[in-house]
Each structure stands twice: as C-alpha cells, then as structure tokens.
Design goal:
Chains A, B, C: Its EC number is 2.1.3.11. The structure is a homotrimer. The first copy, chain A, is globular and about 55 Å long. By secondary structure, chain A is an alpha/beta fold. The first copy, chain A, is built from 13 helices and eleven strands. Chains in contact: A-B, A-C, B-C. Chains B and C meet through helix 2 and helix 13 of B and strand 2, helix 3, strand 4 and helix 4 of C.
Chain lengths: 315, 315, 315
C-alpha cells in the first residue's frame, strides 16, 4: 500500500474518524512500528512535514532516518536509457531499490520544478520511486499533490464544522513567487471525496487548475460572491497552470481581508502554511478566532500517523 | 520554565552540584524524558552544542528532532505587521506556535547578525520564539547570550578550583573575523552570580562589553596586570560592542602565551571552543596540563542535561 | 579497535561468515548497543553509507547522531603548529577529542581532494581523528580507502560464488568527472586477503593504482582478455593516480557492455554505486540477472553491522 494521492484512501470519513481517535491517544500504537524504519527523503524545504511526519513515526515507535537528498546525496537521473555523462550521478532505478533495502517505508518530498508542465504532471520523481522501490511510498508533497496536507485539512474541517452540509471555498490569493499547484490540487481531490459539502473554487480568470483535477467542480471568478455564506475559506496561492509556472497576476484585491471574511457565515480561515501575512491574508484575519491554521498544522501529525499506521498494519 | 539566560537559574551552586551528580551517573533519569520530544532548531553552525545537547536529551530518554532552519526550512519574518512580499516565507508567529505542537521542548541557536545592535540586543529570534511558542524554550546561543556554555563553565570551575575564593579573569584575545559577544556576556552574568570569586575583565580600551551586562564588574586594560595570580583565565574574542560588530583591533600582543600564563597562579586556561590556535592562544598554553578546554566541552552535556531535567520535571 | 582499512580485519573469512549470519537475524544483538552512541561525521555526500551504517547501528540498539561537518560545523585545521588566522575555525586536536566525549564510536566520511596526492595518501582527515580521538574510529570512506564497501563486496562474492576458486576482475571504466581511488584501493586490498581467488586488474595504460597498494597483483591492459572466464567483474572508475586526480582518459571502449560480459563465465557484474549508466556500464548489463549491485548495497548494512558489533564487544 502506498500513499501518493488522497484517492488512495478507501473511506475518507473512516480515516478522518480514526485520525481523531489517534489524536486523543497518540501513543496507543507505540508497538506497531517497533523495529520498523521510516526513511524520509527531502528534495525540498520543509518545516511542518519534516517534523510532523517524524513525530508521527516516533509516536508509532518507528526508527526514523532523515536525509536531504539534494545536498547530502547524489543528483538523480529519471530517464530510462539515459547516457549519464553529465549532471546526474545516480539513476532512480538503483537509488529507489537500494533505499528500499534500508527502509520499511520511504517518504518523499519533491516539489514541482514549474518549468516543464508535462514532466511535473507526470510526477517524475515520486513515480520513479514508486516504480522502482520495493517498499511502500508516502508522498510528503510531490509535483502535483500534497495528500498528507489534504487529509489534515479534512480532519480539521471535521473537527470545526457546525452544520451538516457546510460550504467550503478554495480561494486563490496573490504571492510574489511562483508556487506549485500541489496543495490546491490535493484539496480539490479531497473535496471531491466529501459527501456533504458545497464546494466552490475561486480565482482570477486564467488561473484555472488542471481540468483533469477540477473536473466538474464549480468555479466562481468573483471572490466576494464565492465567499458568501462560506463556512470554511481555504486560501492558497498557486502559479499559473496554463501559462505554466508563471506569476501572471498578483492583484492585491485577492488578498483575504476582514471585509471579505465578513461575507461568510463566520467562516473558518484555513491555510496550509507557511503563509505570507498581509499578502495572502491580512493579520486581522489570520489572528482572528476564526483562523484555524495552527490546528491544521497540528493535525499534520495525526494525518501522517493514520497513514503510517495503515501501511504498517499491511506490512 | 525557559532557559534563556543564566539568570533563569534560581541557585547556581545547587545546579552546579546537581550537574556534577548527573555526570557520575548520566543515565539515572533515563525514564524522565520518555515519550517527550526535543526539537533542536539551528540557524547557525554548531558542533559542541549540537552533539552535547542531543546527547543530554538521549541520556534522559527523550526523542530528538534536529532541524537546520535556514537550509531545511523557511526564511522567517519577525516584525509584527510586516507585509511579507519579499524575502521571508513564514512569520515567527506561525513557526513558533506550529513547532510547539510537535515538541515538548524547543532548543534554538541563532547568532547575532552583528549589523544592527538594537535588533541583536533585542534578541529578536529567541524572543520571537519565546513570545509565540507554547512550550519551554532553551537557548543554544542567541544573539546576546550562551547560557548552556556558561553553566558548563561554572561546572568546570567548580571541579578545578583549589581554593575558597579563586581569581577569575575574562580576557579578550584577537581573532580575524567579527564574533558575537554572547559567550563573554553570559560568562560575565554567570560570574556575577558566583559568591566567592574575584572577577576581572581585561580587554583593549574601546572593547568594553555592554555596560548593562558588565554593570560594576572590574575592568583592567592591562592584560598582564589582570593575569597576576589568576586561578582561571577564560579567553574569548568578541567584536566591538561600541563600534558595533566591527573588528577594530587585532593586536597579537593580546594572544595568550606561556609568558602571560606564567604571571598567574598556575591558572587554568579556559575557552569555549572552537579556538584559533596561535591567534587566540599559543599551542604551548592550550596543550599544557593547565588547559581545561576539553573538560569544559565535556561538561556541555551535563549543563544541557541539568537544564532539560529541570524543565522536564516541571512539564 | 578501529576500522580504517580492510586490513584491520583479523580473519576476512570469519567476518564474512559472521556477517552472513547477522543478515539472517539482524536484530539478534539489539541489546549490544544499548546506551551506546554512534556519531557519524560527513565531510562529503553519501546515500548508501549514510543509511546503511545508521541502519546497522539501529539494528544493534545504538543511538545515532548524524552531522554534516562541512555545512553544520566548523572548517577544520589539520596541521600542527598552524597559525589559524585565515580559513579554519577549529583544529582537529580539539574537534576529535571533544566529539569523543559525546560518542562511543565515531564514523567519518572524508573524500580525497584529488589535488595534493601526498596529503590525500597521508589520509590527513581520518588520521587526524585517529590520532586525537579517544574512542574507536570507523572509516566510511577516506581519501584512500572504503573498507565498509570492500567488506560488503566480500560478503556478496561469498554469497554468489559457485566454484572453489573464482576468477575476479577489477575493471576501470570511463567517467566524466575525477573520482577518488578509494573504492578500487580497498577492493584490491580485500582481494589480497582472499585465499582462493584468481585476481586481475584491468585498466588503460597510465591508470595504474598506487603500486604500494597493488603490490604484485596481476595487471592486464587488454580488458577483453581480462574478462575471459571471469566469475566476477567489479567495475569502477578512478582518476589518474600518476597524473594525480586528472581525467586523462574517457575512452568509451572501456564501458562494460553485454559483448564484453559474454566473454566471462556468466560473470556477475559488481559496482559500488552510484553508477553512471551507459557510461560505466550499459543498461543491458546492469539490468541483467547477473548484476548483483543491489545485493552489494544491501550487504552494506551487514558489513557495517559486523564492524560495529566487533567494536562494541571490545568497548
């Protein structure tokens, strides 16, 4: 069993319930991971993912080996048949198979390069590991997806929802640098698995996410209209998917402010963090009592823990 | 309970005695830290602090997660109300609160930038964590202080003192690069807590430490005079506090040599390490039997261990 | 007891047999390393060594502290009597003695610089630690040797040999960058300790390894001739030893291909990894059933584990 996409979850509602149980007693399954080793491979920066996934593994009694692949290891080649006479020192074939021998589970973080859309959306790195590794793989944010985050988001919404069918908005917001679409993509995929939620995506025209991901999700280009009566407002920047990896809009009118939140139904403010204050969201909103970003980050531990626990049980 | 400054110690003599007891049986409290997690965040290089603090936590049975914040995480913003549209990706508010959720204790190393005196002496980084974290904070060297080092120094002096009221000299020595004042500051603060020691600081004119730290400590500009009959000579370079962060003097006459040590009362040579041989101190002195720098470094483990132990007992 | 060279092994055949036993039950000696700490110091990149050595220590119940000395610590000075007023911040004398106080065993990786032959072949870094450390030292690849690799190679050959006296070839192959001679050197030294193996080294003229290492080993400049009837073909690039550290030959005719392997006695293909595909070896060969590179990497765990076990038993 791997955890590459939120769609690897058989029943989202059951996993969310289990995660909330784990949260109440995180050390209950401390024996489950005994003498099992999690290898965490980072190709990119990480704070929450690094610490929460490690913490989840520790809670399960696992050994953890952390490695910054870029700086501590070798540059990898992903193409079959490549003549490796320039940059890359090692092929994913060997790397994945070798690391599998030292690990019971491998977790990988490798962001989108935001240069070559096809390569990114082919999930070159994580697919390479998936293909050649001989142990389960956990996605700690790949080019296209961030399913540990989205599961934590689902847990958080379950904890904070106050009515049967809440309205959830995913809103784009401006950012000075080009960011991947991974968090937004996985949030959309997670929302598609929710049974009783009204979901709407709002972003400037031209900032559509991949239609293969959003499918028939409702898109509303008027942010204020989208916010009306929302119970949860999930805010995230992403760079342009069509004009791939470019920042073609940085309109400050999309910053989430108290005025906009006033349109909601005392909507909870969500963000995966790290967040640029007063660019993505005003201080007033993120510091308000309706901001649940810290709890989202807290739930990253239990999101990782339910995933590791499910995998460990099948080893 | 936090450990930000040596002044956070209620009774220096009692802590020193406890640390010396721990040193005799370091694994005695191995159960105290069970299922507790220390997160160590490094914004700067570290050898002794990195390994000794980790070792202390291991001796107490704690889990440890180590992170190089600069290279592995995100650039932090510390100013309230900042519009984060340039360098920094994450605000200390979120970072500190989030990490607190994965940690029982957070230890932080963040050196002085040596550019902006006010910012450094406001202890921007560690104060930011202190303000926003929800778990105890341990200072692994901040802009202004290095209290784990000074506690180790106090332990070492206790072990090596041969008379009731020893004379202790803190001597500046030359160094090619601009170094923070943190070690010297904390040593001064520690000496002010000692009851039975004669203390004198010696440095070139113009190299006065912050008067708010040295208070009424005796200053002697003639190094040789200061060394007379000294029982302990603690040597350390610091950059200029007045002409802030500058190297305005690199006079090799301040290097500690055997001739100068001959003026002392078979004085013990101390330094926090790393030390530049034949710049700060001659080989002859640091290699002599009166050099106790290796034992100082050894005591870093027990200094960290008594601090962690005190905090764990109050959790 | 230290493990600096394969020659530190008293009986290669006994160690190999013990390692194969460990492989069958890697957790059997989990109590041996209890409350013992391995400090792993990296001056260079590492994948297999980093993870397999750590895994071996975990299998033995040890605590592990990993440190990237270059980026996380201080630049070291190795010369006695140096006036340290430029680059280096700390002398090996202090560094080695200090780290010894936090460790029961220190493992070190420090590659050849490939600029100064004398300095490299004096094993400056690992010899410095060896001289000044007060605990056992394990070589995780030094300037001249990689004995954990060669022990893993010996284990792998023992597992795969099908006749009493197999023929083993060490073959040079081209590579775009200048690589150290360490792996080849240690392989040669290991082969000299084998009793019942026919050993031949093949490389272009001018690519002779140090004669102090190869001694009276057979050298065959015709690669095809060397491959005839070989049972094991160990392939590795190294930079020129005579024209020190230079790449004076990158002849693609030395790449190991299926045609060449056809000359062997269904010879097993070996390489320490990372390997540049279609430069060192064709895909066809490394992907064939006679390629045992993945198993070699697997045996790195048991090679490290027998070494750590032997040292722990003597502590």
């Amino acid at each position: 069993m791997n955890y590459i996409s939120i769609q690897d979850i058989d029943s989202l509602s059951k996993w969310v319930k289990s995660a909330i149980k784990i949260k109440k007693n995180p050390l209950k399954n401390k024996k489950l991971g005994k003498n099992k080793t999690l290898v965490m491979l980072f190709f990119n920066s990480s704070l929450r993912t690094r610490l929460s996934t490690q913490k989840a593994a520790i809670n399960l009694g696992m050994n953890v080996m952390v490695m910054n692949f870029g700086s501590e290891g070798w540059t990898l080649e992903f193409e079959d048949g490549a003549v490796m006479n320039s940059g890359a020192s090692e092929h994913i074939k060997e790397a994945a198979e070798v690391v599998s021998q030292y690990a019971d589970i491998i977790a990988i973080r490798a962001f989108a390069g935001l240069v070559d859309k096809e390569k990114d959306y082919a999930e070159t790195v994580i697919s390479g590991f998936l293909k050649h590794a001989t142990v389960p793989i956990v996605n700690m944010e790949s080019a296209v997806r961030h399913p540990l985050q989205s599961l934590a988001d689902a847990i958080t919404m379950e904890e904070y929802k106050t009515k049967h069918k809440p309205k959830v908005v995913l809103s784009w917001a401006p950012h000075p640098r080009a960011l991947p679409q991974a968090v937004a993509n996985s949030f959309v995929e997670m929302m598609q698995m929710q049974k009783d939620m009204d979901f709407v995506i709002t972003h400037p025209e031209g900032y559509e996410l991949s239609p293969e991901i959003t499918k028939d999700c409702k898109i509303e280009y008027d942010q204020s209209k989208a916010f009306e009566n929302a119970d949860f407002v999930y805010v995230k920047n992403w760079s342009n998917f069509n004009d791939y990896g470019k920042v073609t809009n940085s309109d400050p009118n999309w910053t989430v402010t108290a005025e906009k939140m006033a349109l909601t139904n005392k909507g909870k403010f969500m963000h995966c963090l790290p967040v640029r204050r007063n660019v993505i969201v005003s201080d007033e909103v993120i510091d308000s009592e309706n901001s649940i970003v810290i709890e989202q980050a807290n739930n990253r531990t239990y999101s990782a823990q339910i995933v590791l626990q499910k995998i460990l049980k099948k080893l």
